[in-house]
User: Fold these one by one.
Assistant:
Number 1:
Amino acid sequence: MGKIYDLIIIGAGPAGLTAGLYAGRSRLDTLLIEKGQDGGQIAITSEIENFPGGLSGPDKTESGAELIARMTAQAAHFGVERLSANVSSVELEGRIKRVHTRDKVFESKAVIIATGAHPRMIGCPGEAELTGRGVSYCATCDGSFFEGFEVFVVGGGDTAVEEAIYLTKFARKVTIIHRRDELRAVESIRERAFANDKIEFMWNSIVIGLHGDGILSGMTVKDTKTGKIRLIEADPDDGMFGVFVFIGFQPNSELFFGKVKMEERYILTDEEKHTNVPGVYAAGDVRKTPLRQVITACADGAVAAMQVERDLASGVIG
Ligand code: NAP
């Protein structure tokens, strides 16, 4: 131990990286801890079409990974110290906060929680066993494995429909399975899906079972209106198909259960991103917020870092 940072940021998604950028520019002694790859969910998003100023490249699209690479470089440029580690527990009560990793304990005057969210699972039999064997939560990561095969996408929101469009680059046919008869996705994304010849829709349907001996080759689907159940099997020539699940997200907040106030696992903050614990702030998708986008996560990170700077300067914390 010994060193006390001004700020520890947990999570290097858009919220954490932006907090790092702002903290670095404010000359706060900052440690940014990330357990996986930078970017969180956005790192595995194939196209970002709604980040302002972001229509770059000849085809006017940019991947999440490209956008995140610039954010990472920018935070590093302003002197944020980086650590690749899994945070195992936190002590948030006192004026000095303690963040534990497997090997070490880090101390700081303030903590920004920017741990994001993870994809929600269907929760049906066979899903866990067949994940990575036909079932996927990331089109960018796994789409190319399905070159020429049939693919199903579960969900009707922006993510499901955008990723279904992306998957048509590889799959010979993409069927969107949605539990209602109307998509949740915004009009601009819907239009592109309806205009795509490779995309079909299975309305009022939910997946209740995924089957296969080592590889996904069957799926049981229930009609939400009639209750009728049917088995969908892979084309015998293929012997397999893909199921991509995009049915929303759950916050990565377990580490903070019982330590900061939450509602339905999302961390509650005020407008300045203070949690109910002095010196502890939250930003991005882990926070209870009406909109979860890259732009809102970045804005949260900026507000949180600037508030840390103000609270330290005024002596409210530290
Ligand atoms: P979402 O908007 O919460 O949509 C989740 C979809 O999954 C909905 O269609 C929902 O059905 C369905 N669903 C939920 N639970 C289900 C279950 N247990 N079984 C079957 N279906 C289920 O999630 P998202 O699409 O991932 O989007 C998350 C946020 O990111 C949104 O704010 C979205 O606007 C944003 N986003 C934006 C972009 C973009 O603008 N380019 C791209 C991706 C994401 P119902 O419709 O019936 O509820």
Number 2:
Amino acid sequence: MHKLRHSMLSSLFMAAIPGLLIGFMVGHPGWILGLAILIWGIYQSHQFGRLTDWLQFESEKEPPEAGSHWGELFDELSRLQKRHKSREKYLRSVITRFQQSSAALHDAIVIIDRHNNLEWWNKAADRLLGLKASSDRGKPVMNLLRDPRFIRYFKKDNYAEPLQLISPVDPEVQLQYQITKFGQGDHLLVARDITRLMRLEQTRQDFVANASHELRTPLTVIRGYLETFLDQELPRPLVRGLTQMQQQAKRMESLVSDLLLLSRLEASNQISDEQSVQIQNLISQIHESAAELAREKGHSFELELDQEFDLLGQEIELHSAFSNLVYNAVRYTPANGHIKLRWWVDAAGGHFAVTDNGLGIDSIHIPRLTERFYRVDESRSSASGGTGLGLAIVKHVLARHSGQLSIKSKVGHGSTFACHFPNDMVVRARATEDDDDHTESMPA
Ligand code: ADP
């Protein structure tokens, strides 16, 4: 540009100086200089006109031929134009490839802008979510995907866990939604068809449930015969063998009933009919059985129970989850241990915690404790009579009650297993039998 300006100025001088000289020679320097500058100006405006015509109407073609700085300007603009076009071509090809590859994807991909309106989606989104390119672009996502669970998930703004829902277009199709935030408040929604996966999962669950159910009858028969045999006068080695068989049969029965319970819990991630569960009574019952179990070990118990609040849920399931935690504390605490059971309510919700001063657990095991059959110490767990399914049951029961399990532990010092329930699961306890029958939700 600097060079151009320089060349323009020199062309002006080239016109002015001869004009001035001729002007002096003919005795009218001013007139002739003015005439020369006028001719120069007309030439410049003519070239400028050619330039604008070329830019407006013929920029596809080669630039017009011109002398001096106009030629340089045309060439420079033509070079810029070519560079711009090749870049545009490259970007177009990138967009086309991206659109082709995302169209070929089986997963639905939807881009939602920062105002929560639909911006772009691929073909799979038409098929799986029923979005229509002709009418839905720019519409709020929550007007089109109207399932309240999706709306709650979208608004929650925490997308660490995916959401599973039936497709809005086909009730046979199960979808898994996962949202990722990007840019300035934009969202990328990916919906995967997981129907096949869910069917396989269902088959697995049905198999475990059926196998456990089928094992029950033969086990009852075996246990019955073993009991009858042990009632007889038998030689000592036979009694020892039969007693061990009886213990193992009992263990198998516990395993079968835990497996059955787990497969029932897995069938749905929400409880269907919730009642107000009297938590103080429930914990007191569990405490009584645990104290019986702990008598030989000489454990002491401490109870700290909030009398004012109960919990909404299913009593049998809560009993099973809480008792698993309390019995674990009894089992994994050496003789003369201390176990504390606590139920309290605060601004975050309701909490039940079991604290023991037992063996404790190394932190590397904690993330895996709720996996089925995961044991910190195989020999110790089998000897204690556990099935390896207790904490998996606790996790499922809590998930069905919108709750969470937290585990704090220190090797050699003990552990605290706590169940946390949200505010809307907590209700005021009924003070006496004569009081009003209804339950009242806890204020947030
Ligand atoms: P199990 O039937 O083996 O007790 P769980 O699922 O109930 O199975 O527990 C898994 C593992 O977690 C146990 O094997 C044990 O090693 C550990 N565990 C559970 N509760 C405690 C506790 N209170 N103190 C120490 N370890 C525990």
